[in-house]
Amino acid sequence: MFEEISLFVAFFGSSLAAIWDLKTTEIPDKIPHTMILIAIIIAIARSFYEQSYLPLINSLVCGGLLFAFGFILYYSGQWGGGDAKVLSAIGFLIPNMLKNSWFEKFFPFPLAEMVSYTINVFFIGTFYMLLYSFILALLNKKIISFFSKEVKASTSLIAIFSLSLFFIFIGLNIYLCYVFEVPVSLKFVLTNSFLPLIFTVGIFLIWKFTKSVEEVGFKKRIPVSKLKVGDVLAESKIWEGITQKDLIKIKKSGKRYVVIKEGVRFAPAFPLALFFTLYFGDIFLFLFRLAI
After folding, report:
1. Are 88 and 63 in contact (CB under 8 A)?
2. What's the pTM?
3. Is residue 289 a part of any domain in this protein?
4. Rounded CA separation 131/117 (Å)
5. Peptide bond just before 110 cis, omega within 30 deg
6. What does the mean pLDDT of the chain come to?
7. I need a labelling partner for 96 at 20 to 30 A (CA). Which of 35, 75, 215, 218 fits?
């Protein structure tokens, strides 16, 4: 019973936060706060039922750790405050969910579930953000144009870097063949030099693409008259919307225009990662199964 209620609260709450984030770019504090309150009530009820302090302690430990982790990302400018709070709220619920994590072999429960879910959030979140960025680029041709110009401007650098890296990989593969006493094969050396080169250049191009999306798709120059509470200034190092007090101050400053920024609505990654964890387990184990 406790497991089912916790799962429902985690999935329903994170889904509600995702919908709100997609619609308004903000997550109301009342959603994660309510999730945390319900999580603590469930933990207290389970502690009474099992005559043990562990359910409550586990809930507080997991929630506290993910709260700290989420706000490190927030203060480093990687996440919004709402994302950090939703992750924390799910952390408070995790100890009362079903135990099905491969990480239990390496971490004591409930840390196993916490590690498993957090890693899934980042893997699923990465694919989700790339998909989001590609769709945005298709809708905004200026992003593709800007990206093309950036790649063309870096063509010489990419060519020199790729050629240098290719010879480094060749040397490294020959060295490893001698170290592990494996016969040196031209096919083996070239294949194991070319594939990591493609991967490295691919990562560089993805980085260039995401920077293009950030510069063209997520930044807008608007009149101060259209600035509203909750907008995030491009100069802000953390994802914190301006307050009514900030808005009045900016309008009194005499500025005519300001640059604001948006970001990928990351909240949908939380219910998606939860769904993935429940039905497929840990992403490392899932990918390993696909590989074999």
Report:
1. yes
2. 0.73
3. no
4. 21
5. yes
6. 85
7. 75
